[in-house]
Amino acid sequence: MRVLFVASECFPLVKTGGLADVVGALPLALSRLGTDVRVLLPNYPQVAGSLGRTRVIGRFRERGGEVTLLSATAGGLNVIALDAPHLFDRPGTPYNTPEGQDWPDNHVRFATLAGIAARIACEGVDGWRPDVVHAHDWQAGLTPFYIRLATVPCARTVFTIHNMAYQGVVPATELDTLGIPSRFYTADGMEYWGALSLLKSGIVYSDRVTTVSPTYAQELRTGEFGMGLEGTVSARAADFSGILNGIDDNVWNPRTDKLLPATYSTKDMDGKAANKAALQAAFGLEVNPTRPVFAVISRLAYQKGLDILLAVLPELIERGGQLVLLGSGDPDLQRAYMDAAAGHPGRVGVRIGYDEPLSHLAQAGADAIIIPSRFEPCGLTQLYALRYGTLPIVARTGGLADTVIDANDAALARNIGTGFVFYPVNADRLRFAVERAIALWYGAPDVWQRLRANAMAQPVGWRASAERYLELYRSLPARGPEPAKEAGKNGAAKSAPAKATVIPAPEKAAPPRKVAPAKSRKRSTAAKNDA
Ligand code: ADP
Fold first, then answer.
1. How confident is the model at residue 503 (pLDDT cuts 50, 70, 90)?
2. In angstroms, what is the span from residue 244 Cα to ligand 1's centroid?
3. Mutation test of ligand 1: which of 136, 334, 381, 402 has the most ligand atoms closer than 8 Å to its C-beta?
4. Cα–Cα dist 486/463, whole Å
5. For the chain, which terminal residue's Cβ has fewer other Cβ atoms within 10 angstroms, N or C?
6. At 24, is the pLDDT very low, low, confident or very high (cuts 50, 70, 90)?
7. pTM
8. Ligand 1 cavity residues, CB under 6 Å
9. How far apart are CA 376 and CA 225, in angstroms?
10. Cis peptide before 424, with omega less than 30 degrees from 0?
11. Residue 167 has pLDDT above 90, yes or no
């Protein structure tokens, strides 16, 4: 089974969030099950700087520009880097200028990625043709669509929604630029509130759709979480499933983690105490083993509910706790947490920014992690926390609900609790959860230790989920016959020339449509132009 992953991030080459962790780890887990996976991603400066030796395996013209495909291996991954300096050799993050603005041509940048993925799906590259193309999030959302446009048999497609809140919304006037014939601009196609949604394209045109936890898969069918695409998701119900993310045991393992001052395991927890002291020192907190340290490692975005935590901070401190926060994002929240640190010296420590090694220290050194997300497709930080014996305090939503067992009386009686779960997502319920945690910390340290042992014993690796993905790939009908060159049977050794276009050119005759917002629809706050 040959699978091409298509994504905009991949750990350890380039990461802004959980997507990168998944795209970096799942291929390795699939390889261990005998799958031949390659990961196609843009050759941003971060990627170019991390890839060692590369080999040119293809040159194409795509969306009007010259692009080169480079093959390399990195951390056990087989990578195909899309080298297109006019699109990707830029400072800033994969999506933003150094000033934090979206690049205005993001839709063209990622349509180029999708277009190249479709070529590989249909023509192959370097003598390799995938059976399945697995595209991730809106950045790869046009991949299944371009494959549908092809005039030859191509790989089958799976599309994974990592977060419905980011949809890649593009003005409808860009149809032609993206090579989308106007007949696909419909409510059943990729039209979204009078614009185009690249995420919707992935949902509508792929053979199978997945998201990253069973609960989020249910939530996406509701108006509360579906962000206007609940109908689209429901229409694909027969082909839609939730498969929980896992963690990369080689990167996130307290027994072997080289980023920690001290390693530890369930059998010998001394190292955790050493990490706690190092964490308290690193954040300028009173170094005191008896105080419960709560951690937050997060983007500071509305989704993550960290405004709610601010309201609970006074009680957390009053009852003896400490807080460390590592994150960046919303300027108002950054300021509010900086103010909190200034107002509670020795008790609240804040680091604004993105710091991978510090995130490992926080996971290992804290006693509990707080994740008050309003929605959370899967969430990875609670999985790392479980593995590191750091009890998660989480909102009951999405993957958080699927992975943390609340230490209520029933769970305590059966000794199966792994953390604290609260609902609904508001300050009162979060306060209650934090108070329960602090009461256990001070009042029943033996119970805390049992919860910690339960947490560390949870199977949070990738194996079970990788098996489910493989099952899904295998359930897809086989693609059509190989092109003549690869079949090599009927004496038809002449394949189409390497540059043959199997994806039809944009409909030149169709002028860009002028589109008025659909009158019958309310404006969706989710129609954020994140493309
Ligand atoms: P999301 O993808 O929505 O941001 P996830 O929980 O799925 O949330 O994944 C977040 C990933 O990003 C985790 O690997 C987490 O450790 C990491 N992360 C988030 N903020 C920071 C930060 N400020 N510094 C280092 N790592 C961070």
1. low
2. 17
3. 381
4. 33
5. N
6. very high
7. 0.90
8. 17-18, 21, 297-299, 326-328, 354-356, 359, 378-381
9. 10
10. yes
11. yes
